[in-house]
Write a structure and sequence with these properties.
Elements (H helix, E strand, L loop, with lengths): L5 E6 L5 H12 L2 E4 H11 L4 H10 L2 H13 L5 E4 L3 H4 L4 E6 L2 H14 L12 H23 L11 E4 L7 H17 L3
Parallel strand pairs: 1-3, 1-4, 2-3, 4-5
Helix pairs in contact: 1-8, 3-7, 6-7
């Protein structure tokens, strides 16, 4: 199995997966794909919130299979940065990054993003930071439960990843996170083995 020119970025809700992935893609001049954006489209098409879609997915595996099949097909491409909870699993020869964050910090970030970027997050409807945190925890628990049932996989286990960064630390602003990912990828890609 060779190394691909693909970077997969997973992580907790609100950890900055999309922001980091977009910037890393710009640095390399690669394409960017966000499974979160795709899921928001699916939720909007079905007239659901993201939370409602994730709960529906617990009873209807076809929802997860839809995104999984799309992610698997992305493994045939080169020059791609994907932010997704499971892309690391479907594209094992990618450079796999996990972004960690404290739920309190993540809820504040996501709520602020909801206030300033409501068109992108129209499938999310939290009215306070506390409500956002509750919804995040429910979504996270739903993801853990589904992925364990479907794939026997804990997608938050750091041992699956080549690089883990805590984006909630003050020293890990977006520029620093992007630099760590770019440097980590280049070292990984050019190393033997």
């Amino acid at each position: 199995m060779g190394k691909k020119k693909i970077i997969t970025i997973a992580g907790k809700l609100g950890s900055g997966k999309s922001s980091a992935a977009k910037r890393v893609a710009q640095v390399f001049g690669w394409k960017h794909f966000s499974s979160g954006d795709f899921l928001r489209e699916v939720a909007n098409e079905r007239g659901m919130t993201i939370k409602e879609l994730m709960l529906a997915a617990e009873a209807d595996p076809s929802i997860d299979h839809q995104i999984d099949n799309l992610l698997k097909s992305k493994g045939d491409e080169e020059g791609l940065v994907i932010d997704s909870r499971l892309a690391f699993h479907w594209i094992p020869d990618s450079f796999k990054v996990y972004l960690e964050i404290d739920p309190e910090i993540a809820a504040e970030r996501m709520f602020r993003d909801l206030q300033t970027n409501s068109s992108r997050r129209k499938s999310e409807r939290a009215r306070s930071v506390d409500e956002m945190k509750r919804e995040m925890i429910e979504r996270h628990e739903s993801d853990v439960k589904r992925y364990k049932k479907l794939y026997g996989l804990n997608h938050t286990d750091h041992s699956h990843f080549d690089l883990v960064i805590n984006t909630g630390l003050p020293e890990n602003d977006l520029d620093t996170v992007v630099k760590k990912i770019v440097d980590g990828y280049l070292e990984w890609y050019h190393s033997r083995g």
